[in-house]
Amino acid sequence: MDPMSSDDRDDAKEGLQRQIEDLREELAYLQQAAGERAQQAYEVVKEHPGTSILVASVVAGVIGFVIGQQTEAEKHSHYRFRW
């Protein structure tokens, strides 16, 4: 009483195998692209270390500010103000 015949299962299996192979190819492409981007970033940092440090500091500051604001908002959201 199997609702799928063996042909249907074989077709489904082949379809999944094709999808897995497509995903593997896409992952390999993305890994190559990420490697190229990392190399480009390394070269930019190597050529302009001061600017790179400034940008990293500003980004870290913005992230810290946002985390601090979120933490304070959550901290004060539990209080009920009585007028």
Task: Please tell me about this protein's structure.
This protein has 83 residues and is an all-alpha fold. The protein folds into 2 domains: 1-47; 49-83. Helix content is 84%, strand content 0%. It has helices spanning 6-47, 49-76.
Structure at a glance:
By secondary structure, the protein is an all-alpha fold.
Described by strand count, sense and barrel closure, the largest sheet is: none
Mean pLDDT: 88
Distance between the termini: 70 Å
Question: H/E element string?
Answer: HH
Radius of gyration: 26 Å
What percentage of the residues does DSSP assign to strands (E)? Answer: under 5%
Looking at the structure, what is the overall shape? flat
Helix coverage percent: over 70%
Total separate domains: 2
Secondary structure class reads mainly alpha
| Unreliable segments of 5+ consecutive residues | none
Number of helices in the DSSP assignment:
2
How many strand elements?
0
